[in-house]
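Lay summary. Proteins are chains of building blocks that fold into shapes, and those shapes determine what they do. In this project we predict the shape from the chain. Here is one chain we studied, written as its sequence of building blocks.
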Amino acid sequence: MYYTHYLMQEKRAVLLLNLGSPASTSVPDVRAYLKQFLWDERVLNSSALVRWLVLNVFILPRRPAKSAEAYEKIWTKEGSPLITESKRLQENLQKILDLPILLGMRYGKPSTGEAIERLKQQGIEEVFVMPLYPHYAMSSYETAVVHTREEIGRIYPQLKANFLQPFYQDAGYIDALVENAKPFMEEDFDHLLFSFHGIPESHLRTADSSKAHCLMVNDCCKTCSPVQSTCYKHQCLMTVKRFIEKTGLDESKYSISFQSRLGREPWLKPYTDHVLEELPKRGVKKLLVMCPSFVADCLETLEEITMSGRDSFIGAGGEEFAQIPCLNNHPKWIEYLAEEIRQWHEKEVPELV
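And here is the predicted shape, written in a compact code that computers can read:
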């Protein structure tokens, strides 16, 4: 059920955070977006000098034009799908909750700083920040939280902020994934591929506070350790485990892969593009793909999977390909977020800033 019109405590609000998008499909706008995104030391985990060289020598001279072509394929009359779906989510939550719901992007517009400026103008004293990333990664959840804290300190230091923790195995999130996938899984299919956004293996090592577990211990993701609270791969595997427990899908009918790698260093394996070419050789003709690390459809799901991924699978001998949409504005997803907001709103939460 949705929780509507409960008594609002004054001067509280909610801030939804997502990744962001270029302002348009023009090459200059895409270049500006990529420059901001890839200059982030938590995305390109290198020194400032190395980041500058990688950006200005290898990426910015050529990649913006290629990326602009990809964005052109998915752009709608309303603009970027990620932005429009995020705004719809904001509007749908606002309809059922008696709290101001704001939206900010880590990169591009509307920016996190602009959202905090609005909180200041409205006299908000406490905010529940909801990074819309199910899994902890330094290049997604961590950078969003750190940047938000920095912007609060710069713009509105008096603001109290609490943060939604990664929700990769929360029952409400898993229920939303299952309900969203159900219509597709009721049709005939051979295999379900869980394609998560990839990260460099070096990011796992950096996030491992013990410096002795991730990618070093045999079956590290299945060996219990405190560092799994910041281990992206472990959390992705747990999402799949909870999904399978809920659906009862046979082990032979699903697999896991990682997409969207950049550069030449090793990323999490297996790579989605390789798997899509290999599955038909294993007899998979009817394929479903879902991308649980993305909560809103974007370039990586619509162009990389639905378009390029489909072409790779069909070209390798596959016959039927369907991508299960991201949660976007599924009622179960809205219900889960509303419940998290309600729980925060109805109890005292220790300040985490």
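What the prediction tells us: Residues 1-9, 349-353 have pLDDT under 50 and may be disordered.
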